[in-house]
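Dear support,

Our group has been running a series of protein-ligand predictions, and this particular one with NDP is the one our PI (initials K.S.) wants archived with full inputs and outputs. We had some confusion internally about which version of the output was final, so please treat the block below as the authoritative record. The input we submitted was:
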Amino acid sequence: MSLPLRQCCVIGWPIAHSRSPLIHRLFAEQFGMALRYEKRAVQPGTVLATLAHLRQLGVLGINVTVPLKEEAYPLADHPHARAQAAGAANTLWFDESGQLHADNTDGVGLVRDLSFLAVNFQQARILVLGAGGAARGILPELARHNRHPITVANRNPARAAALPQANEFELIPLEREFAQPFDLVINATSASLTAHTAPALSASAVGPLTCCYDLSYGQDETLFLAWARAQGVAARHDGLGMLVEQAAEAFRLWHGKQPETRAIVAYLRQPR
Ligand code: NDP
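Confirmed final output from the archive:
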């Protein structure tokens, strides 16, 4: 007897670059699960109508990516704790009665990847660039593990001020000089996606011992990591590992199974 087909998808704008369908297919193979996982281009402002349509189609789980996470969050009937802390959702699912649940797996995805990479984020002085949906997801989890107040720099200061728990962070303008470099600088902006540039950060934010982590990823070195290399930063990591880890947590929420991740990160890094 064949197993019932489970339908999931990722929504975003743009969406063509997403590697989530491949990652979830590789997870499903680990359990012999029949899974259909599609990409859907969804314009900002249309998430509510899209979710009604997906519910009718019998879709079980939905990942939400740039720039829809903040739009998706308030639409849930049941926002779970991590989505509440972020005010943004990257993982949605319908229960048997058609009620919509929302969670946020970005923070745990980042922290798990940093742990695998042996980056000491617990004691680090951290600068996060960006205050959008991704920053909202990672900030509560970083703050939970870190004993220093986290510094957040965003191009639009009003958006940073609107972060949940904004008073727990040091909010600064993006273009600022620093007296000493940070230990860990995390780029959570979409500058490379939307403006094909690295965020305009002063070189004084980093030093040779700084670790730079870019949530963006791709076959080529990201623009932020190229900038960090030009400043002499040795420890540089892109967001591919986080992508796989946050996907694994979404998979666990939807299907109740914890996939193995690191072989998949290695597979995705192979040149093709
Ligand atoms: P949003 O659209 O919600 O937010 C975008 C953020 O980027 C805002 O803070 C915005 O600032 C800032 N920004 C955009 N353009 C520029 C620019 N030219 N210079 C400086 N800042 C800029 O996107 P998300 O937060 O959802 O996603 C951000 C990035 O993180 C994306 O590239 C996404 O692919 C990546 N990501 C990766 C994940 C992973 O698993 N590796 C998971 C989640 C996201 P402002 O408020 O001033 O407009």
